[in-house]
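Complex record, three chains
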Amino acid sequence: MSETTEQKKPAGRRKFELDPRLEKYKGVWVFVEHERGAAHSVSWELMGEGRKLADKLGVPLAGVVMGAPGLQTRRFCQEAFHYGADLCYLMEDPLLSDYRNQPFTKGLTDLVNTYQPEILLLGATTLGRDLAGSVATTLQTGLTADCTELNIDMENRSLAATRPTFGGSLLCTIVTLNYRPQMATVRPRVMSMPKKDETRNGTITEHPLGMIETDIVTKVLEYIPDNLAGKPQLPFADIIVSGGRGMKRPDNFQLIWDLAKVLGAEVGATRPVVQAGWVELDRQVGQSGKTVRPKLYIAAGISGAIQHRVGMEGSDVIIAINTDENAPIFDFATYGIVGNAMTILPALTEAFRQQLATRKVAV
Amino acid sequence: MHIVVCIKQVPDSAQIRVHPVTNTIMRQGVPAIVNPYDLFALEEALRLKDKYGARVTVLCMGPPQAEAALRKAISFGADDAILVTDRAFAGSDTLATSFALASAIRKIQEDMPVDIVFAGKQTIDGDTAQVGPGIAKRMDLQLLTYVAKIADLDLNKREIVIHRRAEGGVQVLKTKLPCLITMLEGSNEMRFATMANMFRAARYPLKQWDKDAAGIEDVTKIGLKGSPTIVSKVFAPQPKSQRAEIIDCESREPKDLSVTLLAKMFTRYPNLAEEIGKNAA
Amino acid sequence: MDEKFDAIVVGAGPSGNAAAYTMAKAGLKVLQIERGEYPGSKNVQGAILYSKALEEIIPDFREDAPLERHIIEQQMWVLDDESYVGSTYRSAEFNKQPYNRYTIIRAQFDKWFSRRVQDAGALLVCETTVTNLIMDRNRVIGVQTDREGGSIYADVVILADGVNSLLAKKAGFHPELEPKDVALAVKEIHFLPEETIQSRFNTGEGEGVVIEMAGKITQGMMGTGFLYTNKDSLTIGVGCMLSDFKSQKTTPYLLLEQMKAHPAIRPLIEGGEMKEYTAHLIPEGGYKAMPKLVGEGWMIVGDSGMFVNAVHREGSNLAMTTGRLAAETVIDLKQKDLPMTAANLAYYQGRLEDSFVMKDLKKYKNMPEIFHKNNQFFTEYPELLNRAAHTMLTVDGVDKKTKEREIRKSFKTRRSLFGLMGDAFKMWRAFE
């Protein structure tokens, strides 16, 4: 991604011929991120996206698994197959038990130089960004961060990576022409989770790290896991009820909590609400907060500014309640109620409560 | 100890608007600010200076106007400021930017070796978080990203212990100097400049380096030529073609509106009723 | 801090910049303190620049100042609810160099001006608030700021901190502003492509138009509306007396919204993207509301001294001229090695009297009162004028003589002949 997009005139469709030395770079790779025994869901979201890209190009899709030797890494390879990978590159070494920049950069760089993929995707997590930036610099290739859409420009078989820029007010599509691999990172929950197919299988290619502990300068002294108990987990919630400035007063937010309680939902909010201190920072949905894609998103008193929209428009069903019938949220919600959230919310809570009660009886 | 802090001047993204007709960024009247994430890096460097004694050199690559960002850094207490500015840098992507900055830091080293390079987590205009790691790799510095806290610094052993934000937890890492640290937001609070430093900033003879002064010989590594990525298209987000179905009923009572909504929704999305049932249970 | 200056200028708007520039250029050691993040940061809207005042400070300003368009046409509109009667003056004279008036964007202009001030050698410190004046008995000897080590001393302090000069008030130099002496103006900037502006206003590249508006748009309140063309944007706004807003219980925002919806105005701004909404207090009390301008070791310039000609909507040129004259007074005293006493600084007042500043302000000194007491200028007259035009211009078989009679009649019924004559007399007196 250009640091100075503004100075650059869009290049448009460029006539271009790939350097013959780069033609041998083939295949799409997804880096499978895992920490403390669990794979990060963004890896599988990327696997789904990588599958589409690989199919368009007619090339295989590979997962890259790096970690300490043991059952876990094998399990991640299997999962990669289930989510769409044709093969996996596996690098096992005790030195890879914790994430450290130096061995992971060397390992991934070696894999790329040996097996030469044309596209390499990573999650835009703290680990993914640390590693992607290092690997791209080492390989002297292009890297596009925080993409929201990936596609193949069939004319020259290059990766067209689209990302928001200038705080989400614009989108830009970035290509990496005469460099390989073409690298991109994608934020968690931006892409949808692919269906798991447990009948799928694939081949595993192992490759050594080739380092000893004394080669590595940085040591992990400790890992302090976050105390997640009681912390909101919006990115993985199936139902979210969110409130915006239209809720007028902090005590009106109780109506949001009431509905959330009936639905077993998480409570979300817009940036102004979080900044006003009505709810905690972890509940902020949008450009500078969390990206969510629940099955149902209820937006009360939210106008639908682009900064909020980019964080929630991937929701399956969006219900919007707003007094202003011209509010932008009605441009992309599934259902809209033009009205005062303070009177609609209690009624909606009651309607859901009754619907749930009758369901119970029916079951 | 010599610390280099890399900062960038950015347009205040909160005030940016897109021209409705031409789809270009309207910069008129949009103030340029120091990238807010960089201030955490600068403050951390100044705290190390207060505690251990250090020379803090601030480095910025950008157009001549970016000198305002550097003067601001001086007003907070940085000792020196260097603006790397050259038309040849126009169009640089992160790879070309890290090349130019790494060259400039090497040039700074000629004067006094650098122990720690600080950078912000990312910029608010580019949002890439790639330049920091890029500099570290090019200069073979130990890379420490998303640092929430510097727990210990032993200048005799040249060792540093930091807390790094990872997914689902915090890594406590120990490494050797020289290193590059990208600071996490909220890790500290920027000080209020003293009047003496305000005067110093206003009078400071800023150093401007062109590409030659920054020690860059290979021009294929900077600007558009040195940038693998190319912006092929810039466009405004397209509104979804489908507008919301507005729920209406005769009475327009909240209760009836709610019931109508649920009826419509569960007819169109029968699975949703089940999902909600599962979730509520 | 031990450092002492010849002069401290508080504020980096047009008046403060003019003062600081003039003194620094003459070799004085000048410190300028600005509250905002940078000069112009609190001033985002468009404005009109009158060349003369700036020319006398920076003769070659046209070479690099950020000027939007030079004005080749001035329109005056009197609006009714649905219509307007207007006069237009466009002259080829206005298209001859050097141009007389320009539209500017204050944020950019102030920044440019400040650059010149700094290049002239003044020391500028921003994001710093002067919290108090440091006094030695009744003499001002410096300023105290909100920063550590922030007490700075100087021979003279020039207050250029704007209409609501907290500092002057705090020091008791300035009475509390009265709502009848202050106008509240709201402005918006609407962005449009350059070519669209040129075709809508029938101008060439770099040429601009100013429209002044009066009448129903202010809903009976004393005030005017305005629209200027910038390079690729329009400045539109309306200003009324603060006291009127209070008694009419309306808001400036609402007023502007209604004004923009006027059938004659809407098409001019159509399709533009609104960028910036700002409210600004303008001192319009005129000559009679002026505070004391000099004292022991201090002077007041610009808006804080009520230097605004409300009738001609001139502010920044008065501001710059007062800044320059104050500076010249200081330079003069320095050269003669005289102390900055109230008596010596009073030369500033003399210079003001000799300049157009005081002459103009004195000339219109009764205007505010006349408009305050006679709101028919903003209600009935516009309506009658528009009705007259409508009657004259509607082709309906009635002869023109009868129409004229009808018009006269309508003026008379709405307002007595005596009232009409009285108004004319008052206006004549005021303008004379």
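Note: The domain at 5-215 of chain A is CATH 3.40.50.620 (Rossmann fold).
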